[in-house]
Design a protein that fits this description.
358 residues, alpha/beta, Aspartate Aminotransferase, domain 1, Aspartate Aminotransferase, domain 2, 2 domains, seven-stranded mixed sheet, 13 helices, globular
């Protein structure tokens, strides 16, 4: 009888709630304004001949390397950051190894690590979702082969200091250290400049968030050139599709568009945090394009009420340490204005209902 590998029995399924997502989508941290018009122009220029050929990744990797300020030998374009995580796990993990994951965080770290047969060691974040440096250092062992940290983190928006991240890399020289900078554009601080001097440090970036290209599935994995050679051995030479590769130069060439969108998100993030504070709703300061807020027992009703008014937000109460929490994406200015109006109305409605019930 055909059976899946025993490793897969321990893998947690990741099921994003994609079905029925009609309305203003503030639940997946997507760019609510869409990609640059230059990307759309490039899409319209793609021919049947372009699509009949196998994609060539190397020219786009040179552009991505220049964008990051590193060499092409230190860069691998991937099918979203998800593939970057997968490739790191497949390269450095095997049964008997350990991978450390600080939680709550992006669920695919644990999925891909456990699929290799490695043991996933989860470390709960400190108060206010701060990086639990001491706890992470304590859990590093002779079996540790990978440590994954999102910076800024999802779903909390919290960030870790560069010194702490580099301390982890120094204390775990036999482990691949992944710093997932998917939300870098909204934060502005990166460790990519440390790659040349750290043989175990890897940085992941994406074009799904600030660049508005989530549907094209293109990301970047950056790391030491010698280590990247090993990762390329198991990466398909055609892992990034021709359409995404054709659009990447247009996206990178319109920096003004991305800068403008990021500025709008940062303003909106400040407005949302101020509104939550005024409403007496606990939230955690964020450096990403979303804010995590604590609605307590009313979290499920709040998500439903907002949805009835045409806006989707993400219930994260099942994440470790996030009981009663809802994650709210911040997008274009008009969308933030609509969100704030609906949020005020829904919170007031919830409180009136609570008073009646009391």
């Amino acid at each position: 009888m055909l059976r899946p590998a025993d490793n897969l029995r321990r893998v947690k399924s990741y099921h994003p709630p994609l079905a029925g997502r009609s309305g203003l989508r503030l639940d997946f941290n997507e760019n609510t304004a869409g990609c640059s018009p230059r990307v759309i122009e490039r899409l319209r220029a793609i021919t049947a001949d372009d699509l009949s050929r196998y994609p060539e990744r190397e020219p786009a990797e040179k552009l991505a390397a220049d964008w990051l300020g590193i060499t092409a030998a230190q860069v691998l374009l991937t099918n979203g950051v998800d593939e970057a995580i997968h490739l790191l796990c497949e390269t450095y993990l095997q049964p008997g190894d350990e991978a450390i994951v600080v939680i709550p965080t992006f669920g695919m770290y644990e999925v891909y690590a456990s699929a290799t047969g490695a043991t996933v060691v989860t470390v709960q974040a400190d108060a206010d979702f701060r990086l639990p440096l001491a706890s992470v250092l304590t859990r590093i062992s002779a079996r540790t082969r990978l440590i994954a940290i999102a910076n800024p983190n999802n779903p909390t928006g919290a960030v870790a200091g560069a010194a702490d991240l580099l301390t982890i890399a120094e204390r775990a020289p036999d482990a691949a250290i992944l710093v997932d900078e998917a939300y870098f554009d909204f934060y502005g601080q990166s460790l990519v400049g440390e790659i040349a001097s750290r043989e175990n440090l890897f940085i992941a970036r994406t074009f799904s968030k600030a660049y508005g290209m989530a549907g094209l599935r293109i990301g970047v994995l950056a790391g030491p050139a010698a280590q990247m050679d090993s990762i390329r051995r198991i990466a398909s030479p055609y892992n990034v599709n021709a359409v995404a590769l054709a659009c990447l130069p247009a996206a990178l060439g319109d920096r003004d568009y991305v800068t403008s969108y990021v500025a709008a998100v940062r303003r909106g993030r400040a407005q949302l945090e101020a509104e939550l504070g005024a409403l007496g709703i606990q939230y955690w300061p964020s450096e990403a394009n979303f804010v995590l807020a604590q609605f307590g027992a009313a979290h499920e009703a709040l998500v439903a009420a907002v949805r009835r008014r045409g806006i989707l937000v993400r219930d994260r109460h099942r994440d470790p340490g996030c009981a009663g929490c809802v994650r709210i994406t911040v997008g274009a200015e008009a969308h933030t204005a609509a969100l704030l109006a609906v949020l005020r109305e829904c919170v007031a409605e919830s409180r009136r209902s609570a008073e009646v019930s009391a």
